[in-house]
Amino acid sequence: MTAPLTADAHDYGLAGDGTADDRPALQKLVDALGDATAADGRPRTVRVPAGRYVIRDRPVLWRSGVSLVGAGRGATCFALANPGAPTQPVPLAWFTTAQHGAGRDNHIADVTFAHFEIDGSGVETEEYEVLAKGLGLQYVLRGRFTDLYIHDTAATGFGCDFLQDTVVEGVLAERCGRQDPGEEMGGAGIGIGVGGWGPVERLAVTDCTATGNGTNGIFLELQQDDWVPPRGFRVTACHTEGNRYGISDWGADGLLVTGCTMLGNHVAGFDVSAQGTTSVGGRGGIVTGCVIDGNVGDGIALGNTPGPYAFRGNRVSGNGRYGYWQHNLAGGDQEPATDIVLESNDIHDNALDGIRVDAPLHEPAIFGNRIRNNGRRAAPETRGGGAGVHCGPLSLTDENADWLPGGHRGKLLTVGARNAGGGDRVTAGAGAEVTVVVTDNTATELTLAPERPGAQTAWPGGTPGPGAAYRLPDSPAPRTGLTAAAAVTHPYVHGNRVRDDGHPRTQTHAVWIAHEATWTGGRVSGNDFSGNASAATRFDSAPSGGRWRDNDG
């Protein structure tokens, strides 16, 4: 077989008719072009015309120097399926360390994957299989992944690790990780393992979109805990929405995240923690110019990191818990995070505290921020049912209600059919309670989070019928601009505007030092603490040392 520099897939036996298994012909072509490239050093390209190409029961083992280029997302589609191999993961292309001995000296080089779609809906493994991806390559050098649409895979959509001198751009990943309940490895839209090339891995992820994926929209994860967390990663102009986490740093050093949007993610918009396989959080990252809005849980969740980390010029608003939450998960790094910087951010209208510190901080710098109108979860306990109550897939409406708009944000709603006897006990079916999460509300309507990322309904057992009884818990207090509930040493808090000018005011205090906290040394000066609902400050544990001066309010 001759091996041209560019091969038309139809000329080499691929049918693209949506029925025939095109995997054997594609594997034969990739092998031939890979052999030719190895012989003469000249990379080859497979051009795939419009059509639906079935890849059945086995993935294609990829070869160095072979590119795959389609006719466009809506034209060329690779449909993955495993009807004859229910235990076999079927990514389109794979080359891994465990299966194929991939490594620094045995890598994939000079490849482009561009302008096609991967439909993973036809793969269903008997148990969750982390390798049931759309693309699953490891150790790629000088790669380019561009204009790809990957959707409905059983595990991660774009799941490629150790990408050196590589660009990932214009990748759309939707509803990937559909077999992952949210607690398994992988299950992301775009998941990239890091560390295999050493302390520097030069990778740009740009203009990508990840929506409704089982775990992360986009994440970087250190793969071995004895590796040095690598540098060189940039995530720019990306959009993550409706995933479990939006963008996560689970083990990089100096990750740059710029100009991204993180909206409606279930746990957090941006996450640094010990969630990854090595229980190593990221460090040294810089997040700037991002919009982190309306996430069901927290806007920014940061923990298990020794620091530093910096957040500058971001909008963090309308989230269902905290705008920024400092915390540590069990099993990860527990030392105080040093040199955390929050500068010139707009942190407003979050359900609870604008900034919440539940893990030790050493020498944090919080300056020039507008921390305003937080504590929106201010509505009192309520319950109802009967006439005027009806539910939609993502809503509950009570025409007789008069709720504080946004006042139930982030609350757990318990709902079911009212008892035949007219009581207020909430039941559904055979007495089971159904609990869902409120993302926002008007005076009469509650907006609800989907039951899991990618779902079209909030209700796991079907939409409740008319007149369903419901209850909502009371609001917590205090709800502050800045809460310290852990040890904070030598902080620099300067030039912030920490107030509430909303109607009604819901941010009870500018600063609260909880009884379990210690606040030692540092400087708190030049801040505007006026206009909060209850008082400027609340000290259940008195600060020790340091300077508090020239603060308004």
SS field, number of helical segments: 2
Average pLDDT reading: 94
Number of strand elements? 52
Overall structural class, as computed from helix and strand content, comes to: mainly beta
Largest sheet: 30 strands, parallel
Spatial gap, N to C terminus? 82 Å
**Helical content (DSSP H or I, runs of 4+):** under 10%
Shape: globular
Rg, alpha carbons: 26 Å
Task: Please state roughly what percent of the residues sit in beta strands, choosing from under 5%, 5-15%, 15-25%, 25-35%, 35-45% or over 45%.
Answer: 35-45%
Poorly predicted sequence stretches spanning 5 or more consecutive residues: 418-431
Description:
The protein is globular, with a radius of gyration of 26 Å. With 553 residues, it is mainly beta. Strand 41 (434-441) and strand 42 form a beta hairpin. The protein contains two helices and 52 strands. The protein has a 30-stranded parallel beta sheet that branches. Mean pLDDT is 94; it is low at 418-431. The N and C termini lie far apart (82 Å). 4% of the residues lie in helices and 42% in strands.
Give the topology:
Elements: E1 6-8, E2 17-21, H1 23-40, E3 44-47, E4 51-56, E5 60-61, E6 66-69, E7 76-81, E8 93-95, H2 97-100, E9 108-122, E10 135-151, E11 158-159, E12 161-164, E13 166-174, E14 190-194, E15 200-206, E16 209-211, E17 216-222, E18 231-236, E19 239-241, E20 245-250, E21 256-258, E22 261-263, E23 268-272, E24 285-288, E25 291-293, E26 298-302, E27 309-312, E28 315-317, E29 324-326, E30 337-338, E31 340-343, E32 346-348, E33 355-357, E34 361-362, E35 365-367, E36 370-372, E37 382-384, E38 389-392, E39 395-398, E40 412-416, E41 434-441, E42 445-448, E43 469-472, E44 480-484, E45 487-489, E46 492-494, E47 497-499, E48 509-513, E49 518-520, E50 523-525, E51 535-539, E52 547-549
Parallel strand pairs: 1-3, 2-4, 3-6, 4-7, 5-8, 6-9, 7-9, 8-10, 9-10, 10-12, 10-13, 11-14, 13-15, 13-16, 14-17, 15-18, 16-19, 17-20, 18-21, 19-22, 20-23, 21-24, 22-25, 23-26, 24-27, 25-28, 26-29, 27-31, 28-32, 29-33, 30-34, 31-35, 32-36, 33-44, 34-45, 35-46, 36-47, 44-48, 45-49, 46-50, ...
Antiparallel strand pairs: 37-43, 38-39, 39-42, 40-41, 40-43, 41-42
